[in-house]
Specification:
The chain is of the alpha/beta class and about 190 residues long. About 40% of the residues lie in helices and about 30% in strands. The longest helix is centred in the middle third of the chain and has 20 residues.
Length: about 190
Protein backbone atom coordinates (compact mmCIF):
# COMPACT_ATOMS: atom_id res chain seq x y z
CA UNK A 1 0.00 0.00 0.00
CA UNK A 2 1.05 3.54 -0.56
CA UNK A 3 1.84 5.28 2.70
CA UNK A 4 3.00 8.73 1.69
CA UNK A 5 0.55 11.38 0.60
CA UNK A 6 1.81 14.74 -0.57
CA UNK A 7 -0.33 17.85 -1.04
CA UNK A 8 0.78 20.40 -3.60
CA UNK A 9 -0.68 23.89 -3.88
CA UNK A 10 -0.87 25.42 -7.34
CA UNK A 11 -1.43 29.06 -8.21
CA UNK A 12 -2.94 29.61 -11.62
CA UNK A 13 -4.59 32.83 -12.75
CA UNK A 14 -5.15 33.88 -9.13
CA UNK A 15 -6.96 30.63 -8.33
CA UNK A 16 -5.49 28.47 -5.62
CA UNK A 17 -6.13 24.76 -5.65
CA UNK A 18 -4.65 21.79 -3.84
CA UNK A 19 -3.86 18.46 -5.43
CA UNK A 20 -3.29 15.32 -3.38
CA UNK A 21 -0.59 13.17 -4.90
CA UNK A 22 0.36 9.67 -3.81
CA UNK A 23 4.11 9.30 -3.59
CA UNK A 24 5.52 5.83 -4.08
CA UNK A 25 7.89 5.03 -1.22
CA UNK A 26 10.75 2.64 -1.98
CA UNK A 27 9.78 -0.82 -0.76
CA UNK A 28 6.03 -0.20 -0.86
CA UNK A 29 3.90 -2.44 -3.04
CA UNK A 30 1.82 -0.88 -5.78
CA UNK A 31 -0.80 -2.92 -7.67
CA UNK A 32 -1.27 -1.51 -11.17
CA UNK A 33 -3.82 -2.40 -13.83
CA UNK A 34 -2.68 -1.56 -17.34
CA UNK A 35 -5.16 -1.28 -20.21
CA UNK A 36 -4.73 -1.37 -23.98
CA UNK A 37 -8.16 -0.19 -25.16
CA UNK A 38 -10.00 -1.79 -28.04
CA UNK A 39 -13.55 -2.69 -29.01
CA UNK A 40 -12.88 -6.23 -30.30
CA UNK A 41 -10.00 -6.95 -27.90
CA UNK A 42 -9.29 -4.91 -24.77
CA UNK A 43 -6.05 -6.11 -23.21
CA UNK A 44 -5.51 -5.89 -19.47
CA UNK A 45 -2.57 -6.67 -17.24
CA UNK A 46 -2.15 -6.52 -13.47
CA UNK A 47 1.34 -6.16 -12.09
CA UNK A 48 2.68 -5.67 -8.61
CA UNK A 49 5.51 -3.15 -8.39
CA UNK A 50 7.81 -3.32 -5.39
CA UNK A 51 11.25 -1.77 -5.06
CA UNK A 52 12.45 -1.89 -8.61
CA UNK A 53 10.83 -5.13 -9.71
CA UNK A 54 7.57 -6.27 -11.21
CA UNK A 55 5.49 -9.39 -10.57
CA UNK A 56 2.62 -10.48 -12.80
CA UNK A 57 -0.66 -10.96 -10.95
CA UNK A 58 -3.05 -11.52 -13.86
CA UNK A 59 -3.43 -10.70 -17.54
CA UNK A 60 -5.83 -11.40 -20.36
CA UNK A 61 -8.30 -9.84 -22.74
CA UNK A 62 -11.92 -8.79 -22.75
CA UNK A 63 -13.27 -9.70 -26.18
CA UNK A 64 -16.44 -8.85 -28.04
CA UNK A 65 -17.67 -10.32 -31.31
CA UNK A 66 -17.94 -8.39 -34.54
CA UNK A 67 -21.54 -7.91 -35.60
CA UNK A 68 -22.72 -7.44 -32.02
CA UNK A 69 -24.43 -4.06 -31.50
CA UNK A 70 -22.01 -1.39 -30.24
CA UNK A 71 -24.03 -0.72 -27.08
CA UNK A 72 -23.86 -4.41 -26.11
CA UNK A 73 -20.11 -4.59 -26.83
CA UNK A 74 -19.51 -1.57 -24.59
CA UNK A 75 -21.71 -3.08 -21.88
CA UNK A 76 -19.70 -6.34 -21.98
CA UNK A 77 -16.42 -4.43 -21.67
CA UNK A 78 -17.75 -2.37 -18.76
CA UNK A 79 -19.15 -5.37 -16.88
CA UNK A 80 -16.07 -7.58 -17.27
CA UNK A 81 -13.64 -4.78 -16.46
CA UNK A 82 -15.67 -3.81 -13.38
CA UNK A 83 -15.53 -7.44 -12.21
CA UNK A 84 -11.74 -7.49 -12.64
CA UNK A 85 -11.36 -4.20 -10.79
CA UNK A 86 -13.53 -5.41 -7.91
CA UNK A 87 -11.67 -8.73 -7.75
CA UNK A 88 -8.12 -7.34 -7.76
CA UNK A 89 -8.62 -3.83 -6.27
CA UNK A 90 -5.70 -2.12 -8.05
CA UNK A 91 -4.26 1.08 -6.60
CA UNK A 92 -3.64 2.59 -10.03
CA UNK A 93 -5.33 2.26 -13.41
CA UNK A 94 -3.02 3.08 -16.33
CA UNK A 95 -4.47 3.33 -19.83
CA UNK A 96 -2.89 4.02 -23.17
CA UNK A 97 -3.91 7.27 -24.80
CA UNK A 98 -5.81 6.92 -28.04
CA UNK A 99 -3.50 6.88 -31.01
CA UNK A 100 -5.23 8.72 -33.83
CA UNK A 101 -4.71 6.95 -37.11
CA UNK A 102 -6.11 7.56 -40.57
CA UNK A 103 -9.27 5.53 -40.00
CA UNK A 104 -11.54 7.89 -38.07
CA UNK A 105 -14.29 5.30 -37.58
CA UNK A 106 -11.83 2.91 -35.88
CA UNK A 107 -10.51 5.73 -33.70
CA UNK A 108 -14.05 6.59 -32.59
CA UNK A 109 -15.00 3.02 -31.69
CA UNK A 110 -11.74 2.51 -29.77
CA UNK A 111 -12.45 5.84 -28.08
CA UNK A 112 -15.82 4.48 -26.91
CA UNK A 113 -14.15 1.40 -25.42
CA UNK A 114 -11.50 3.58 -23.78
CA UNK A 115 -14.21 5.77 -22.28
CA UNK A 116 -16.08 2.77 -20.87
CA UNK A 117 -12.83 1.49 -19.31
CA UNK A 118 -12.14 4.87 -17.71
CA UNK A 119 -15.71 5.03 -16.34
CA UNK A 120 -15.38 1.52 -14.84
CA UNK A 121 -12.27 2.60 -12.91
CA UNK A 122 -13.69 6.01 -11.98
CA UNK A 123 -16.88 4.43 -10.61
CA UNK A 124 -14.76 2.40 -8.18
CA UNK A 125 -12.56 5.35 -7.21
CA UNK A 126 -9.36 3.94 -8.73
CA UNK A 127 -6.92 6.72 -9.71
CA UNK A 128 -6.57 6.85 -13.51
CA UNK A 129 -3.38 7.66 -15.43
CA UNK A 130 -2.81 7.88 -19.16
CA UNK A 131 0.31 7.41 -21.25
CA UNK A 132 0.99 7.91 -24.93
CA UNK A 133 2.31 4.97 -26.97
CA UNK A 134 5.60 6.91 -27.24
CA UNK A 135 5.89 7.20 -23.44
CA UNK A 136 5.15 3.49 -23.00
CA UNK A 137 7.82 2.47 -25.51
CA UNK A 138 10.32 4.85 -23.91
CA UNK A 139 9.64 3.37 -20.46
CA UNK A 140 9.90 -0.25 -21.63
CA UNK A 141 12.58 -0.25 -24.32
CA UNK A 142 14.29 3.08 -23.75
CA UNK A 143 13.41 4.28 -27.25
CA UNK A 144 10.06 5.87 -28.10
CA UNK A 145 10.03 4.60 -31.67
CA UNK A 146 10.80 0.98 -30.82
CA UNK A 147 9.26 -1.83 -32.86
CA UNK A 148 6.32 -3.75 -31.39
CA UNK A 149 8.38 -6.98 -31.24
CA UNK A 150 11.13 -5.23 -29.23
CA UNK A 151 8.56 -4.00 -26.73
CA UNK A 152 6.96 -7.43 -26.41
CA UNK A 153 10.33 -9.08 -25.77
CA UNK A 154 11.14 -6.50 -23.08
CA UNK A 155 7.76 -7.12 -21.40
CA UNK A 156 8.57 -10.84 -21.37
CA UNK A 157 12.01 -10.13 -19.91
CA UNK A 158 10.90 -7.56 -17.30
CA UNK A 159 8.09 -9.79 -16.05
CA UNK A 160 10.12 -13.01 -16.21
CA UNK A 161 7.56 -14.72 -18.45
CA UNK A 162 8.24 -17.90 -20.44
CA UNK A 163 6.70 -16.44 -23.60
CA UNK A 164 5.31 -13.19 -24.95
CA UNK A 165 1.68 -12.76 -23.82
CA UNK A 166 -0.87 -13.17 -26.60
CA UNK A 167 -2.75 -11.49 -28.14
CA UNK A 168 -0.58 -8.40 -28.71
CA UNK A 169 -3.13 -6.26 -26.83
CA UNK A 170 -2.32 -8.13 -23.61
CA UNK A 171 1.42 -7.53 -23.96
CA UNK A 172 0.66 -3.86 -24.64
CA UNK A 173 -1.51 -3.64 -21.51
CA UNK A 174 1.28 -5.14 -19.39
CA UNK A 175 3.66 -2.60 -20.95
CA UNK A 176 1.34 0.24 -19.90
CA UNK A 177 1.30 -1.10 -16.32
CA UNK A 178 5.12 -1.32 -16.28
CA UNK A 179 5.31 2.21 -17.68
CA UNK A 180 3.19 3.46 -14.79
CA UNK A 181 5.33 1.63 -12.25
CA UNK A 182 8.44 3.24 -13.70
CA UNK A 183 6.69 6.62 -13.58
CA UNK A 184 4.99 6.21 -10.20
CA UNK A 185 6.96 8.96 -8.44
CA UNK A 186 5.80 11.37 -11.14
CA UNK A 187 2.31 9.93 -11.58
CA UNK A 188 0.60 13.24 -10.81
CA UNK A 189 1.86 14.41 -14.23
CA UNK A 190 -0.10 11.64 -15.98
CA UNK A 191 -3.31 11.66 -13.94
CA UNK A 192 -6.46 11.81 -16.02
Amino acid sequence: MLKALQVFTFYRKKVIFNVQVRIYVWGDTLLIMGIDPGIAILGYGLVEYKGNSFKVIDYGAVTTEAGTPMSLRLSIIHRQLTELLEQHKPEAFAIEELFFNKNIKTALTVGHARGVAVVAAANLGVPIYEYTPLQVKQAIVGYGRAEKKQMQQMVKLLLNLKEVPKPDDVADALAVAICHGNSSNFSHLFKL
